[in-house]
UniProtKB/TrEMBL annotation:
<dbReference type="InterPro" id="IPR002469">
    <property type="entry name" value="Peptidase_S9B_N"/>
</dbReference>
<protein>
    <recommendedName>
        <fullName>dipeptidyl-peptidase IV</fullName>
        <ecNumber>3.4.14.5</ecNumber>
    </recommendedName>
</protein>
<keyword id="KW-0378">Hydrolase</keyword>
<feature type="domain" description="Dipeptidylpeptidase IV N-terminal">
    <location>
        <begin position="152"/>
        <end position="542"/>
    </location>
</feature>
<dbReference type="GO" id="GO:0008239">
    <property type="term" value="F:dipeptidyl-peptidase activity"/>
</dbReference>
<dbReference type="InterPro" id="IPR045785">
    <property type="entry name" value="Dpp_8/9_N"/>
</dbReference>
<dbReference type="GO" id="GO:0008236">
    <property type="term" value="F:serine-type peptidase activity"/>
</dbReference>
<dbReference type="InterPro" id="IPR001375">
    <property type="entry name" value="Peptidase_S9_cat"/>
</dbReference>
<dbReference type="GO" id="GO:0004177">
    <property type="term" value="F:aminopeptidase activity"/>
</dbReference>
<dbReference type="InterPro" id="IPR029058">
    <property type="entry name" value="AB_hydrolase_fold"/>
</dbReference>
<comment type="similarity">
    <text>Belongs to the peptidase S9B family. DPPIV subfamily.</text>
</comment>
<dbReference type="GO" id="GO:0006508">
    <property type="term" value="P:proteolysis"/>
</dbReference>
<feature type="domain" description="Dipeptidyl peptidase 8 /9 ,N-terminal">
    <location>
        <begin position="24"/>
        <end position="136"/>
    </location>
</feature>
<dbReference type="InterPro" id="IPR050278">
    <property type="entry name" value="Serine_Prot_S9B/DPPIV"/>
</dbReference>
<keyword id="KW-0645">Protease</keyword>
<dbReference type="Pfam" id="PF19520">
    <property type="entry name" value="Dpp_8_9_N"/>
</dbReference>
<keyword id="KW-0031">Aminopeptidase</keyword>
Length: 735
């Protein structure tokens, strides 16, 4: 579950009706200790609700015809009595009694295993990745899985572990297994571990900003890249996503295994790794106070402030190969490599490229033959270049342009090629209509000077004033046997997320599979016979149910999901919980806008009440958490997307920077509260420091609350509790 960030939680505006005299307002006031008790109980309940639900599902079909279960369902969850996520599984029965509610038992995969480091002491790399991913949960937070062998690989306790279940070795029957620690000679934390799909004896990981591989059977490990020289402020790295790519584009890895191995004539096999090599020489170094304040040290971060230099990069394949022509020469307008991967047959690597303005996107294919061995010998390099097959080139199979900006998404499904000249795929486009929708596209792979491919066909699969969910890890599930694509979207109402299915062969009907009145987050099984939904609404806490998909004869599209079993029932709301009321109104844009209002428990009809509005402004009171106060000092990827580079929009940067307008702040005390984590490496404490300096210079009052050991997200439970008490106390005293 995401950790709360100060900006998410604390940017609020408070309105009061100035026509009413104070006696007409009734605000129940509590002491600091009274508020602490209320917050403590509330956080305990909400924390249980937020972290308890299972997630990251993996369906595995059982092939025992005589056994009682059809699937084993693996997932991460927090077992009863535990405070950390673990790897769990449940058995899905072949038959159920429809008149009885079946609640699946959660079974431990791992035997007496503590995944959280001792006293929560994460390494600097782990801590920063948790910040970028907004992770608040402890324990195992992700895992990699190899279906043929049943191999699970995960990071825990500052180390790497694996275990096996299912696959060719059968399933564990009852007793949990003891995970095997993967020993290492590496100093420092091994990050981003992944199983090699073509040979699961091999894994890859990042150590000290370089790429390594290891054989889990023999214990051998090898450093593949030597980009990072070990210097404290070394600008080069391999296989690592940079700060801006993680924070603003949601890409958290910098290397990708090919999906299969290539057989050699001698009987051996070759596996490939595509990785990103980054040079941050042009990126400014920012010094942020270290958590170990008593040592008087500062952590150094490469942080590209808007208008300054971004990283330089290239994509390199394994076996010490590099592109025939440097990446920036092949694609001269590219500023960001937003997404990378392989086609399912391993024939091409692919990448999503963005220019600096984020108004032009290119989807490109990179054949492995385009990479040649790295060599300092000109003759050897020339020999390698001569061996590159004729007409080997990248292909730009799709382009998008817009006059605003392009939101990078996670939906790309390449079909296996049936002819050498054509390449078909499912893609999301938001630029065409302003709403993200699915398209099936066929491009013609014809060599050309500019690498651009003609579009043979572009079929609209979904359309209308609603969205297919495509960002922040969203998925689609494509059943090539029935020509159906399953996706999540907002077709029924923007207030709810549902699972839908549509034909990509003859698009028309879009069929909803989840029940209305709730918002769902779903995962579909590999065989398209089950899905699991985590769903809730404003008056019903989350529950997790498993549904069976049984298509009617001859019509797989119009399937009727059948409730099969429960993994978690809704725990119910506290007795004093009043759900918010949803309201809507027409906006000036012509679209209907929606909101939620939480009414006070002691609401008295006919009397006006102080109102807290979650926006970034005044007029009565303002609370700002980790505020960006000078846009020139924020990062490139976010700021330039909406505001262009500073030299093209000087007026916008000045008008949008609150620290340059402190003369407009009120002169009465107790109207402005600023909160900031001192170690914040995203919105640096500089922003608050500069704002407060300007406020003092202007002679204006303010209140400042600093959290000395917190970053952009509040991690320490005591800090989280304190800032919520601080917020409520400020409201009740001064609103």
């Amino acid at each position: 579950q995401p950790a709360p960030t100060m900006t998410d939680q604390l940017c609020v505006t408070l309105y009061n009706n100035m026509e009413d005299v104070p006696s007409q307002f009734f605000v129940e006031k509590h002491s600091w200790e009274g508020l602490r008790d209320i917050i403590h109980c509330s956080r305990k309940y909400s924390g249980m609700i937020a972290n308890k639900a299972p997630h990251d599902f993996q369906f595995v079909q059982k092939k025992d015809e005589n056994g009682p279960h059809s699937h084993r369902l693996y997932y991460l969850g927090m077992p009863y009595g535990s405070r950390e996520n673990s790897l769990l599984y449940s058995e899905i029965p072949k038959k159920i009694r429809k008149e009885a509610l079946l609640v699946l038992s959660w079974k431990q995969m791992l035997d007496h295993f503590q995944a959280t480091p001792h006293q929560g002491a994460y390494s600097r790399e782990e801590e920063l990745l948790r910040e970028r991913k907004r992770l608040g949960a402890f324990g195992i937070t992700s895992y990699d899985y190899h279906s043929q062998t049943g191999l699970f690989l995960f990071q825990a306790s500052n180390s790497l572990f694996y275990c096996q279940d299912g696959g060719n070795n059968g399933f564990i029957q009852s007793a949990p297994v003891k995970p095997v620690e993967i020993k290492t000679q590496c100093s420092g934390t091994r990050m981003d571990p992944k199983i090699c799909p073509g040979d699961p004896d091999f894994i890859a990981f990042i150590n000290n900003n370089d790429l390594w591989i290891a054989n889990i059977k023999t214990g051998e490990e090898r450093r593949l890249t030597y980009c990072h020289k070990g210097l404290e402020e070394d600008p080069k790295s391999a296989g690592v996503a940079t700060f801006v790519i993680q924070e603003e584009f949601d890409r958290f890895t910098g290397y990708w295994w090919s999906p299969s191995a290539v057989e050699d004539p001698s009987g051996g096999k070759t596996v490939y790794l595509l990785y990103e090599e980054v040079d941050e020489t042009e990126v400014e170094i920012i010094h942020v106070p270290s958590p170990a304040l008593e040592e008087r040290k500062a952590d150094a971060y490469r942080y590209p402030r808007t208008g300054s230099g971004n990283v330089l990069f290239q994509i390199v394949s394994t076996q010490d190969k590099e592109l025939v022509v440097p990446f920036n020469s092949l694609f001269p307008g590219t500023e960001y490599i937003a997404r990378v991967g392989w086609t399912s047959d391993g024939k091409y690597g692919w990448a999503v490229l963005l220019d600096r303005s984020q108004r032009k996107l290119q989807l490109v294919l990179l054949p492995p033959a385009l990479f040649v061995p790295v060599s300092d010998d000109p003759a050897a390099r020339q020999e390698s270049l001569a061996a590159v097959p004729v007409n080997t080139q990248p292909y730009i199979i799709y382009e998008e342009t817009t006059d605003v900006w392009i939101n990078v998404h996670d939906i790309f499904y390449p079909f296996v090629q049936t002819t050498e000249e054509e390449f078909s795929f499912i893609w999301i486009n938001e630029s065409k209509s302003g709403f993200s929708h699915l398209y099936k596209i066929t491009s013609l792979l014809q060599p050309s000077r500019d690498f651009k491919c003609a579009i043979k066909e572009e079929v609209t699969l979904t359309a209308g004033e609603w969205e297919v969910l495509a960002r922040h890890g969203s998925k689609i599930w494509v059943n090539e046997a029935t020509r159906l694509v399953y996706f999540q979207g907002t077709r029924d109402t923007p207030l709810e997320h549902h699972l839908y299915v549509v034909s990509y062969e003859s698009p028309g009907d879009v069929v909803r599979l989840t029940k209305p009145g709730f918002s769902h987050s779903c995962s579909v099984s590999q065989n398209f016979d089950f899905f699991v939904s985590h769903y809730s609404n404003v008056s019903t806490p989350p529950c997790v149910h498993v549904y069976k998909l049984s298509s009617s004869e001859g019509d797989p599209l119009h399937v009727v999901p059948e409730f099969w079993a429960s993994m978690m029932e809704s725990p119910g709301c506290p007795g004093d919980y009043n759900p918010p009321e949803i309201f809507d109104f027409p906006g000036k844009s012509g679209f209907q806008l929606y909101g939620m209002v939480y009414k006070p428990h002691n609401l008295q009809p006919g009397r006006k009440h102080p109102t807290v509005l979650f926006v970034y402004g005044g007029p009565q009171l303002a609370i700002a958490g980790a505020p960006v106060t000078v846009w020139m000092a924020y990062d490139t990827g976010y700021t330039e997307r909406y505001m262009d580079v500073p030299e093209n929009n000087q007026q916008g940067y000045e008008e949008g920077s609150v620290a340059l307008h402190v003369d407009k702040l009120p002169s009465e005390p107790n109207r402005l509260l600023i909160l900031h984590g001192f170690l914040d490496e995203n919105v640096h404490f500089f922003h608050t420091n500069f704002l407060v300096s300007q406020i003092i210079r202007a002679g204006k009052p303010y209140q400042l609350q600093v959290y000395p050991n917190e970053r952009h997200s509040i991690r320490c439970p005591e800090s989280g509790e304190h800032y919520e008490i601080m917020l409520l106390h400020f409201l009740q005293q001064y609103l």
